[in-house]
Amino acid sequence: PALSALMPTRKQAKTSAAAAPRESGLRETVVAWDKTISHAAHTGVKDLERFGSRTFYMFLEYSGHGVLWLVLAGVLLYLYPSRALLATNLFVALILDLILVGLVKFIVRRQRPVYNTDDMRFSVRVDQYSFPSGHTSRCATVAPLLISMLPDMTLVIALWALIVPLSRVLMGRHYALDVIAGLTLGYLQYLAVVTLLWIPQAQCDALRDALLAFFP
Q: Is 143:182 a contact under the CB 8 Å cutoff?
């Protein structure tokens, strides 16, 4: 009797069997809508490329590239002592972003849109995957960090952080859900940096002094 009580009834088994197709159907519906909306957005701006918008999109792409931001953080730390706190924690945020985005891309392995133009530069193997958008997560991580320390540039930084993610869909690099996931992951990374991984001013200054000792 005890064993039979642990075994699912025929009704429970039927309910579980019916739930799986419904979950699969919902997922397929969401993905289909994601692809449809993303393709429509991309197609809607294709005719503008003859006026140079592709060049503008490529500029936005480079502006959110991880390599560029790592270099900027290093230059900021080396040349501007007063910005050691910003530069050091910016570097921490960028490393966290590269690790987590790369890991999720490797696990999910969603292919980029078939209409994506193969002209990405400075990419690594995991960049062949689409989910989540690394440029978007980087914006969502870096922008609030910069705004908190450079309040006078809030408007410029906020506009950049909005335009770059939008351009990823319009450019055909990503689906809309990739961008939404990137925004979510990026902001969570920002929270992790400021609450768990934050490096205080004294340690940032010590790190800069050590850096100058190797590269005077």
A: no
Element (H, E) at 200: none
> The tokens 């900021």 sit on which residue?
76
**Predicted confidence (pLDDT) per residue in 127-168, tens digit:** 889 999 999 999 999 999 999 989 999 999 999 999 999 999
79/185 Cα distance (integer angstroms):
31
**Whole-number CA gyration radius for the chain:** 22
Contact assessment for residue 134 and residue 106, using Cβ atoms and an 8 Å cutoff: no
User: Chain-centre distance of CA 84, in angstroms?
Assistant: 25
Known catalytic residues are: 135, 174
Of 170, 99, 90, 91, residue with least CA distance to 134:
99
Q: Is pTM, for the whole model, over 0.90?
A: no
Of the candidates 131, 124, 144, the one whose C-alpha atom is nearest the C-alpha of residue 100 is 131
Give the burial class of 177: count Cβ atoms within 10 A of its Cβ; 0-12 exposed, 13-18 middle, 19 or more buried. buried
